[in-house]
Amino acid sequence: MVLLTISRTLGRLLVDLQKSHGCTLVDSHGCSYIDLNAQIASLTLGYNHPALKPDPVLAVHRMANNLFPSTDHERHLNHVFPRISPYSNDDAYLWLGSSGSEAIEAAIKHATRHRDGHCLSFVGGFHGRTCGSLSLTHTNPLYKVGFPSIQSHVAQLPENAAQIESRVSEFRSTIEQQRPAAVFIEPIQCEGGDRHVLHDFARQIRTICSENDVVFVVDEVQTALGTGTVWAHAHWNLDDPPDMVVFSKKTQASGLFAKPEFAPHASDAYAFNSTWAGDAHRSLMLEQILDTIDDEGLFTHSSTVGNFFFQNLALLNLNGVHSIRHSGSFGAFDVANRDQVVRDLQEAGVIVAGCGKDSIRIRPPLVFNQFDAVMALDRIDHTFRRQQTS
Q: pTM for this one?
């Protein structure tokens, strides 16, 4: 029997995990690649980092943590997750789940339990593929065809500083007229084409949400631990932190942080229950990742190497490459005939992924080093030069 999977349908690589190390992926045929996709931005320390040591007991026993948590899980709740909490106080609420989409679903439920109404998100935003999260997604319309959805509202992001005033005015009118329960926003619209939310716009809409008692939810499923800081929204310098922050991918564990007023009462707790409610083994991985980030200075390292990579990419002056943007090593560029470029780069030994209409996103692990960057740039340069002569 041959099982049908997305990877088989799309013709993806079969990875040899035993032979892959750092930013180098080795496939089942022994071919090596510089991996600038990092398993859709979720491989924080690359392949087979020596600091990651699984616990066989936690790996074997996935507990029903809401009802029968282990002592390890309790320790992680008290000592690991506070290290990445977006709130300075000690009484933040934490909900843990199994995926980014599930965490978005939980955020929708917590927000609408707090205040009646629908949710609002932005054109170009991507929040998941489950039915609730898909209702907030506004990238590829084909994702929604044939699936039920909950009612939601939509707003526009400014493309540049000149549009901020008008987009803020439109946003205020939408909030006052539609009275949504919550607003969902990504610091960088990753699936939507790596569109960076302008900091001044983010600060102004956060103020509008506060003034109208609208729950302000920041979706950091892809950006957490990825832009040279724990949270990408830290670059916004908000006066009032988000009401909720959703995380997954590089944090390994997935879930949401929220201000304490969003914690359910005991009588309502089962409305937010799930069997596993997180995974102590993934929480252990998060602890080891955070220790390694601190020990090896990986936020500073990845920002330095990211600046080197994208500055030198621009200096290559490749035909058709434009709109290079990044935050640390987390970035993208635009190019014509994007899908063909992605295939050509893979043939040249560089793994990247597309997003938006014509963007290529770069998502290396935090251990991405200058040697990796030089190798990747050389292969990218060779690929584009070869295209010009063919």
A: 0.94
Cα–Cα dist 13/15, whole Å: 6
Q: Where are the domains of the chain?
A: 6-50+297-389, 63-278
Class of the CATH-defined domain 6-50+297-389:
alpha beta
Architecture per CATH, domain 63-278, reads as 3-Layer(aba) Sandwich (3.40)
Q: What is the pLDDT of residues 345-374, one digit of tens each?
A: 999 999 999 999 999 999 999 999 999 999
User: Residue 16: left if φ>0, alpha if ψ -120 to 50, beta else—which one?
Assistant: beta
Query: Residue 232: how many CB atoms within 10 A of its CB?
Result: 24
CA gyration radius for the chain? 21
Q: Are 7 and 39 in contact (CB under 8 A)?
A: no
- The yes-or-no answer to whether 6-50+297-389 and 63-278 have a common fold is no
Alpha-carbon distances, residue 181 vs 113, 134, 239, 291 (angstroms): 9, 17, 21, 37
Write the DSSP string, 66-116: TTS--HHHHHIIIIIGGGT-SSSSS--EEEEESSHHHHHHHHHHHHHHHS-
Cβ contacts of 168-171, under 8 Å, gap ≥ 24: 168/201, 168/204, 168/205, 168/208, 171/205, 171/208
pLDDT, tens digit, 9 for 90 and up, residues 336-353: 999 999 999 999 999 999
